[in-house]
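quick one: coenzyme A bound model?
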Amino acid sequence: MRTLLEGVGAYLPERIVSNDELAARIDTSDAWIRERTGIAQRHIAGPHETATFMGAEAAKRALAAAGAKAGAVDAIIVATSTPDQGFPATAVNIQSALAVTQGFAFDISAACSGFVYALSVADGMIRAGQCRNVLVIGTEVYSRILNWQDRGTCVLFGDGAGAVFLRASGQGESRGVISTHLHADGRYGDILYIDGATGQTGKSQHLVMNGREVFRHAVAKLAAAVDEALEANNLSHADIDWLVPHQANRRIIDAMGKRLNLRPDQVVMTVERHANTSAASIPLALAEAVQDGRIKPGHLVLLEALGGGLTWGSALIRL
Ligand code: COA
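yep, here:
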């Protein structure tokens, strides 16, 4: 049995904040941000654009793209590190927003790798027969955990949500999730983290990052993760139609595209307009490239991500 990806949806907050707008508030410049990261702007959530609201909107669009009804959904898995509450899980709040009353719903915390982790869990549960029609959603409001005085981090992130609707296939299907590859190494927890959690006093609750160290790990670990996905399936670089990477930094994305011998137009890039939306970045990028017709049914798509933990991983999907 295979897990088919039947629909993709996205939601971006209405408000766009340019690099110049940030440069008017803190000691940075459009030129510095573009050159080091490729980012030109980011979407920032308004008060009503919560993780639940954005995730539910993206999910509705994924269901509509698949021609599916919310009544068919029997599991909702949400990747987020910026939930609206400690509990109920954002997935349960989204279940309620979609008026789904059957099945189960839970969150996954794996920072920027969250979507790849959630996809892997959903695929495993579908193959095990625990559910058949699953929404996997990445939804993030990093604007609420950034230290807006820290120019080393606040320029890098944005808000948004993306969702995919997955369905169990019948026998003999060659499309769908081919394999997923997950990794974590907690020894590096101190190079990218949120300082504190619900109920802890004396903590800033802000995102903290050692950018240079994260960059170094990202290039090496993502290279290994993409190789692993190809080797596991006896595939070569030439088999890949599209790379849809986590969108943290143009330099990291370019390095992965080169390593895979892909043409630049085979790499989906949204970091310029979305910045880093953590667990939402891959489904946002996937939604854009599916909706504008670049990624077509039958194409082989490679996903990869690295995030706080450290966590990282890859996934191969035939659309
Ligand atoms: N504007 C202007 N100057 C800035 C700045 C900003 N927004 N942020 C940092 N700087 C300055 C630093 O203060 C430092 O100045 P100094 O040399 O006078 O001390 C200088 O730029 C270099 O800082 P550094 O942090 O070494 O820059 P860098 O080349 O490593 O680029 C990142 C910084 C964050 C862009 C880069 O490290 C990176 O992309 N890391 C990976 C981050 C990532 O992907 N995180 C998410 C993973 S999910």
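The domain at 176-318 is CATH 3.40.47.10 (Peroxisomal Thiolase; Chain A, domain 1).
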